[in-house]
Specification:
mainly alpha, Arc Repressor Mutant, subunit A, Four Helix Bundle (Hemerythrin (Met), subunit A), 2 domains, two-stranded antiparallel sheet, 11 helices, 2% strand, elongated
């Protein structure tokens, strides 16, 4: 369904000259158009699934040529903010991206920086316990019900399943996402794929999960759920930190210096 959305006014370039320096390059017209449309998405004037107005309307509103307008749309397309179906008459459609938009570049940056899996798991240990506290203190019944459903699916899973890393990773990710903190959620989402690959690498190639370890894992998840539903932020945070410390030791023993790229493949 196409929603008619009033267009925002065009914002002209600023002329700025730093003291003692050369003038800053003024943005290209296409960049200004893209910036205005981008701001409309951020402000909610354009939502997921909305189509941009047709080319004629956009050209008239911004006072630009068709090549300039198409360049602006290509900028938004490269940012994964719009989806353009070539040959379609419907035009560009808004697609609000998720954390996956930065997951691949982040993985590359981690590789280039020489980051190890130990770095990654240490970072997660700084994110997830705080998220568990926030979730305990302000989480909804619906959020806890969702985690219980994920836990039930995990209980029914085969400890030797190749999907165990993915299932446990999803539980961890949703703990953060359901905490309500957007920044923590984006960072966790960014690291999620890399973490799952490493966990699968360990489970499948080095140390398959034993029945005893699986039982301990489920027990730990259930204890977290008890603290979350009780609204006990202190105990939820402390328990999840201890859980992550134990998991990190299990996943890193003998692999402490493995670089991220060895797992990303």
């Amino acid at each position: 369904m196409v929603r008619n959305t009033p267009l925002a006014p065009m914002i002209g370039p600023d002329s700025v000259t730093p003291l003692g320096g050369s003038p800053i390059r003024s943005p290209k017209t296409a960049e200004l158009v893209a910036g205005t449309l981008r701001r409309m998405v951020v402000d909610g004037q354009l939502s997921e699934g909305d189509f941009l107005p047709n080319e004629a309307e956009l050209m008239a509103h911004f006072g630009v040529s068709r090549p300039t307008l198409r360049e602006a749309v290509r900028v938004l397309e490269s940012e994964r903010l719009v989806e353009v179906r070539r040959g379609s008459r419907t035009g560009a459609r808004v697609r609000v991206p998720g954390p996956e938009i930065v997951a691949r570049p982040a993985g590359l940056l981690l590789e280039l920086s020489g980051a190890t899996i130990a770095d990654l798991l240490t970072a997660k240990a700084g994110i997830e316990p705080l998220a568990a506290r926030l979730l305990a203190e302000s989480g909804s019944a619906e959020a806890f019900d969702e985690l219980d459903r994920l836990l039930a699916e995990l209980v029914a899973a085969d400890p030797q399943s190749s999907r165990l890393a993915e299932s446990t990773g999803l539980f961890h990710l949703r703990v953060v996402q359901l905490s309500g903190n957007a920044t923590l959620s984006i960072v966790a989402g960014m690291l999620h794929e890399i973490t799952v690959r490493h966990t699968a690498f360990v489970f499948n190639a080095h140390r398959p999960v034993s029945k005893a370890d699986f039982v301990k894992l489920i027990r730990s998840y259930r204890k977290l759920m008890q603290f979350l539903r009780a609204g006990d932020g202190d105990r939820a945070e402390a328990h999840w930190r201890k859980h992550l410390d134990v998991s990190r030791e299990l996943l890193l023993t003998g692999l402490e210096s493995v670089p991220v790229r060895d797992v990303m493949g």
